[in-house]
Amino acid sequence: MKIPKAWISLLVVIACIIYSIAAQATVNTFDGNLPTRIVEVANPQSRLRATKVLLPDWSRISLGQLPGISQSGAIDGSPYSQTLGYDLSRTWNVGMTPDQYLKLGDISEALQAEEFSLQAIALRTAPEANTDIKSIDLNKITLSKFPLIGEQTLRHLAQVVPELANIQVNNITPVDTLLKSQGIAASNLTLAQVLKQYEVGQMKLGEIDLSEFSISSIPNLDAVPLQQFTGWMNSNVSDIPGLGQVPLGSMPNPMTEIGSLVMRIDVVYGPAENRRNNTISGSDVQGFSVPCNEKDCAYLELDDLENAGGSDRSKLEGKQWISGKYQEVEGGRGILKAVNNGREPTGRLPFGKAFKVVVMEPDETTDTVDTALFFRFCAWRMGCTPYFIGPVPFFSYKVNSLIFVGNLSEQRTNTAYTPTGATREPQASTTNRTGVTEKINPCRFSNDSRSITGQSFSGIDLRSLLNAIGETESDSSKDYKAVGVYTCTDRGSNCGRALGRYQFMSYNPYVVQLIAAKPGGQEFLNQVKQGHQPTEAELFEFFPTADQDRAFMADMANKIQATQEQIDTATGQPFTGERLIERVAQKHFGGDYSKVDGNGSDALGRLSLKDYGKTALASYRNGNNSDNGMLTCSPNVNSSYISTAKNTENGR
């Protein structure tokens, strides 16, 4: 029987379609429901044309749309409550999406979502903005769905909501209801007049039932950036109307790929492997080429895209991405570094700092591998936990699939990471060495010498050091009311006065952070910068004793962490023990870049840098011989936030 030409043509077309689909499947294969986009990857070092790869489409993926977490867990943040001003404690259960256990402070560094106003959020979830995202209507959302508003005082609302102070109270129905609940009939007065005539400035909206009022019942409330609300960093993402639905690619700091390197999965190996040194996995603390020097080195072996055999080898061939299920590395920073013993699964940050991508279970029998996301908690500008909150299921791959790697660094580290003890069989939550299901006590002791335990950081008792510095300053500076002489440093770019017991300069980043957060604080700082000498009342209004201690302990922890990684010119070894204390005191006195054991002094010419360090050390020894030197698991722990300022020297 003769087959018609039309049928032959149709069969050829069908065959081409089938071949095209099969070919595409070998380019990138994954399981999951996350929206993706096709990206063409140039391959200049090979004889192949540009290759297509599937990547997450961050313009259609939000925190609320990511998969639910696979394991439950909790963190006890109460030891840090006094320092942070809020309770960092968190509980997460299987199935919860990231918007339900992450707070604004956790994602501030990575996504800067606090820069949004409710109005901006609504625009980014509008149907015309993205058809995949559920839209929100602020007129239909009650104030009770925005718990952060209940924590705001009337005085603060009058300061941050545009024109609200000049609006009559009867046009601000929640405020009118709040005042009437206290027997105050002032409907015809503006909010500013009410605040002047009545002592109601500290009343909070949360004192009434807010479920009766919509967000639009407070004029211009939707125009206020979230970061202007008191306590914004402690608000769950899910408690900000619509924020959990904003695409990650539409955040103020949009999520995107970091770098452009895509590699091919050549082989997958299980945990029977050991001693692998050509790695591209690790952490932002240890770097991303940490070797696996022990056992349980499950990994992906990666190749460049040429796929032309051994004759076309390049430096990218044979790279190893170690499984984070079986190996963990050092992670975290600042006040929260000690959480989970400072450990996190090894992996990479190809999409920025919001989460870590981790290879989980390479399966040699099926030539497949699962990946997962791990999140972290952060105390705003005070540090972050390691990436240990997970796993959140991500892409699954087969051998010959393409996987996005991001930037590769040639920098190598000899610091190995440790096996987790995980096996292929499910384990009880109490034995999970990655810490994702156990209840974590961030105050527990760690083998990591840089972890904070109670009031101790790297073996230095911060409370004793606090007292030692206070004693080393001049007699007047032992008083929290002390104000130093006006001075300028860095060729006039930093001008101000030393404030309080520890004589922090008014331009110190910790001081600026604490003062600027208060109403009128920035204006006060500007005045001091111009030479104004604060009164006792002003000092205690803008830089009270608790803030002075908080700034000191944060700054000391930061200086300790940085100094112990530097070389002591007197010994040729890293700063440790008493020399570490001396050098940290010198930095407090003369600045981070002051000369080790230098002869320079402050504007008063009382002590040299070297003498200051020795005097502070002597006071510290005395303090450690008293009850003050005993280490306890106290909530009065502060951060080691790393400032980006060029120089924060005291300049006194």
Instruction: Tell me the domain tally.
Output: 3
Task: Give the N-terminus to C-terminus distance in angstroms.
Answer: 102 Å
Query: How much helix is in the residues?
Result: 10-25%
Report the principal-axis shape. Answer: flat
Q: Radius of gyration in whole Å, from Cα?
A: 29 Å
| Residue runs with pLDDT of under 50 for 5 or more positions | 10-31, 308-312, 425-454, 626-652
Describe this structure in words.
With 652 residues, this protein is α+β, with helices and mostly antiparallel strands. The strands form eight sheets. The chain has a four-stranded antiparallel beta sheet, with no helix packed on it. Strands 4-3-18 form a three-stranded mixed beta sheet, with no helix packed on it. The chain has a three-stranded antiparallel beta sheet with strand order 10-8-17, with no helix packed on it. It has 15 helices and 24 strands. It is 23% helix and 16% strand. The model is unreliable at 10-31, 308-312, 425-454 and 626-652 (pLDDT under 50). It has helices at residues 5-27, 81-84, 98-101, 104-111, 118-124, 154-160, 173-181, 191-197, 462-472, 509-516, 521-529, 536-542, 545-563, 577-590, 609-624; strands at 36-41, 51-56, 73-75, 90-92, 261-269, 299-303, 319-322, 327-330, 333-334, 343-345, 356-363, 368-375, 378-379, 383-384, 389-398, 402-406, 418-419, 439-440, 452-453, 456-457, 460-461, 483-489, 494-499, 504-505. The chain folds into three domains: 91-250, no CATH class; 261-424 and 431-441, no CATH class; 456-629. Residues 1-25 form the signal peptide. Keywords: Signal. It comes from Calothrix parietina FACHB-288. This is M23 family peptidase.
